[in-house]
């Protein structure tokens, strides 16, 4: 599987993780999923990366952020990749400044 700029630590059937996934999909952002151990005490990788064992956790190499808490992550995605954000995406997931069809 290719590694993307965004890594999402998640768990199957986790509603908080799904909320983040939906937002990533809305912005057409590619991401790498890393599924954590269901057993809380075994989540060493996400703990090492983020300092917490709860998921979701996102790591975005474009901006250098590591963040937990789904509401914060969604807000971060909106402000970074949504309208007016530094990496604003067109509906097809292409950065707005290189999307075809704009005025030359
Ligand atoms: N407030 C957190 C809740 C996240 C959460 O509870 N995630 C669950 C999986 S659905 C989890 O990691 N539970 C383990 C724990 O609470 O330590 C958020 O919105 O991201």
Task: Describe the model.
It is a single chain. With 104 residues, the protein is of the alpha+beta class. It has a single domain, classed as Glutaredoxin. It has helices at 15-26, 44-50, 70-81, and strands spanning 6-10, 31-35, 57-60, 65-68. The chain has a four-stranded mixed β-sheet with strand order 2-1-3-4, sandwiched between helices. A hairpin with a 4-residue loop joins strand 3 and strand 4. Helix 1 runs parallel beside helix 3 (70-81). The chain is elongated. The mean pLDDT is 90. Glutathione binds at residues 11, 14, 16, 40, 53-56, 69-71.
Please specify the SSE layout and strand pairing.
Blueprint: E1 6-10, H1 15-26, E2 31-35, H2 44-50, E3 57-60, E4 65-68, H3 70-81
Parallel strand pairs: 1-2
Antiparallel strand pairs: 1-3, 3-4
Helix pairs in contact: 1-3
The protein binds glutathione.
The site of glutathione has 11 residues, from helix 3.
């Amino acid at each position: 599987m290719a590694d993307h700029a965004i890594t999402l630590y998640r768990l199957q059937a986790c509603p908080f993780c799904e909320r983040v996934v939906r937002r990533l999909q809305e912005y057409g952002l590619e991401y790498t999923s890393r599924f954590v151990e269901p057993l809380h005490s075994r989540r060493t990788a996400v703990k090492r990366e983020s300092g917490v064992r709860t998921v979701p956790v996102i790591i975005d190499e474009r901006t250098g952020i590591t963040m937990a808490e789904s509401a914060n992550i969604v807000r971060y995605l909106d402000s970074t990749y949504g309208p007016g954000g530094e990496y604003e995406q067109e509906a097809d997931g292409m950065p707005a400044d290189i999307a075809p069809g704009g005025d030359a």
